[in-house]
Design brief:
Layout lengths: L10 H10 L7 H5 L9 H20 L1 H30 L7 E5 L4 H12 L3 E6 L2 H13 L4 E5 L5 H15 L4 E4 L5 E2 L7 H11 L1 H17 L2 E6 L12 H20 L5 E7 L12 E2 L3 H13 L7 H14 L3 E3 L2 H12 L1 H12 L15 E2 H6 L4 H15 L7
Parallel strand pairs: 1-2, 1-4, 2-3, 4-6, 5-8, 6-7, 7-9
Antiparallel strand pairs: 8-10
Length: about 400
């Protein structure tokens, strides 16, 4: 029979007594207090209790070892998952040389940087934008770099113009392998002064410029059973940044559209990537639309997009876009800050709301109730301003813009 120990005995001593059937290792005081259990069902209960005590003793004797074992198991599982993900990503990889890539909004800025990066991989290019002269300059410059390129003036929100552009690409190259939906505009200002016309313009120039080209190329890609679509949205498509109301509405729509495409088109052999870039140093303040106290809004916005501490590299962002197309990645962030911000918004929306509300308090206040203002583009704000900081930020933006557009002659 196994001895029963007093309640105050140490777990290890109690385990040894139950498992080994002896109490010779116990103190004299404990040994004197041992009693024997009563017969029939007590033995089975004692054995079960003994096993539990043995585990208890092992845990208290080696808690660090237990932690290390758990850590090793979790780490091994994560390692296997990461390895499987890497293998799957390599299997999705495609060679880009000779592929036909369409880049909307490709005549300047981020779109032009993306086109140049695809050219480095040996791709054939098709670009469009509203400005026909800018498209012509971009086509000429890309051809000097050795590209086979087709260009055409096209408003990507107009279904008739988009159909004509896609037909021109197919007539020239015979296929479209990759579509990069980059065309879009930016809007900045307080929601209280937002005019309905500007909100409609935001949806037209952020969401519809993604929708129209996508639906135009889908029949071709589905018929071939292959395609890559890369949608350039924004961190503003994931988080409610104050004074970005019109922009956020459009980007939320574009991001949701892109994520649904990712789910539904996979079975057709079409992989869709959603790219969420942060502010980029490419001259965007000159082309952004501002309402409210325009000069103050411009200064706040330009500080973020002209500072090397807050703006990300446009060239690096373009490389990430091309890499996502090569591997068919579902989601790609450009910067660690953007990645952390979107994860924090998803994990703790209440906390992030308080943080954004605090940031909103330091931005320029809106006008009186019921007052609305029409948007003005940043270049016009700079041209009509006598403010020294506005002029300085405008000059920095012009310098950034020159790096991402073809020369005028």
């Amino acid at each position: 029979m196994h001895p029963r120990l007093p309640r105050h005995a140490r777990p290890a001593d109690r385990a040894r007594a139950f498992l080994g059937g002896t109490h010779r290792d116990l103190s004299a005081a404990d040994s004197a207090r041992i009693v024997h259990p009563s017969p029939p069902g007590e033995l089975a209960r004692s054995l079960r209790r003994g096993r539990a005590l043995a585990c208890e003793a092992a845990f208290f004797a080696h808690p660090l070892g237990m932690f290390r074992q758990i850590s090793a198991i979790v780490g091994g599982a994560l390692g296997v998952a990461a390895g499987a993900r890497m293998v799957a990503r390599r299997r999705r990889r495609i060679a880009m040389e000779g592929r036909v890539v369409v880049v909307t909004g490709g005549s300047r800025g981020f779109g032009y940087a993306i086109a140049r990066e695809f050219l480095r991989h040996g791709c054939k290019l098709a670009i469009c934008s509203r400005d026909g002269e800018a498209v012509a300059r971009a086509v000429a410059e890309l051809r000097l770099r050795g590209a086979e390129v087709f260009g055409m003036a096209c408003d990507a929100s107009d279904p008739v113009q988009v159909e004509a552009f896609i037909k021109g690409v197919l007539d020239t190259f015979g296929a479209i392998n990759v579509l990069v939906n980059n065309a879009g505009q930016m809007f900045f200002g307080p929601v209280a002064e937002l005019h309905p016309d500007d909100l409609e313009a935001a949806l037209r120039n952020i969401f519809w410029v993604h929708y129209r080209p996508t639906t135009a190329v889908l029949p071709h890609m589905r018929a071939r059973g292959f395609g890559r679509i890369v949608n350039i949205t924004s961190v503003a498509g994931k988080i409610p940044i104050p004074h970005h109301a019109a922009y956020v509405v459009g980007k939320y729509a574009a991001t949701g559209w892109s994520e649904v495409l990712t789910v539904e088109l996979r079975k057709d052999g079409i992989l869709v990537s959603t790219i969420t870039p942060p502010p980029l140093a490419n001259g965007a303040p000159l082309y952004t639309h501002f309402n409210g106290r325009e000069e103050e809004e411009f200064k706040w916005f330009a500080r973020g997009l002209t500072s090397r501490w807050s703006a990300s590299s446009t060239d690096r962002a373009a490389r990430i876009v091309v890499d996502a197309a090569i591997h068919g990645d579902r989601q790609r962030a450009i910067s660690m800050g953007g990645w952390l911000a979107t994860r924090a918004q998803g994990a703790a929306p209440g906390l992030m709301t308080r943080i954004w509300a605090g940031f909103d308090r330091v931005l320029p206040p809106p006008g009186p109730p019921g007052h609305t203002t029409k948007m003005r583009v940043g270049a016009e704000v700079v041209a009509g301003s006598a403010d020294a900081e506005v002029q300085a930020r405008g000059e920095t933006a012009r310098r950034d813009a020159r790096r991402y557009r073809p020369p005028d002659s």
